[in-house]
Amino acid sequence: MTFEANPTVEIKVLDARLHEWGLPAYQSDMAAAIDLHACLDAALTIEPGTPAQLVPAGISVHMGNPYMAATIAPRSGLGHKKGLVLGNSIGVIDADYQGPIMVSVWNRNAPGTEPIVIQPGERIAQMMFVPVLRPVFKTVETFSEDTARGAGGFGSTGVHHAKSGS
């Protein structure tokens, strides 16, 4: 496996309005992800407590590399300020998927509060490309070595800062 810092990803524009709204691009020199636009024909109102809805992003991608994937994450401002989150927490786009990118959105606010309205062209999520490890699995009866933690899970390491060993 070789790692490329700037691999080529082909993007197909499925909604011509992206040419006026802005094609997917990094918004700063150190941005980790590209913003995705809501390619809607009309405003979408999402009431609190209703099921998640799929919003087209107007693009499809071809990564062509099994050691790469894309993730879809919420934009922090929309989640924190408005309560708009992804219906599946985070979306994973496999390297061999070439269909339309869809964003599952959900209004996490309490019932009885204001709905969230998404406007056509609004930037609603972000897509980040990540490296993928594809390990070879080996079935065993016991692990080749024991760790200090072992099978301890769900809070087994505590919730307070660890004491330094000085």
Automatic annotation (TrEMBL):
Magnesium in keyword set: yes
CDD domains: trimeric_dUTPase
Keyword Hydrolase applies: yes
Region forming the signal peptide: none
Domain dUTPase-like stretches: 20-158
Entry EC number(s): 3.6.1.23
Pfam family, one: dUTPase
Superkingdom as given in the UniProt entry: Bacteria
Catalysed reactions, semicolon-separated: dUTP + H2O = dUMP + diphosphate + H(+)
Keywords for the protein's UniProt record, in alphabetical order: Hydrolase, Magnesium, Metal-binding, Nucleotide metabolism
GO biological process: dUMP biosynthetic process; dUTP catabolic process
GO molecular function per UniProt: dUTP diphosphatase activity; magnesium ion binding
Family matches, as NCBIfam families: dut, PRK00601.1
Family: Belongs to the dUTPase family.
Protein name: dUTP diphosphatase
Species: Cupriavidus basilensis
Source lineage: Bacteria, Pseudomonadati, Pseudomonadota, Betaproteobacteria, Burkholderiales
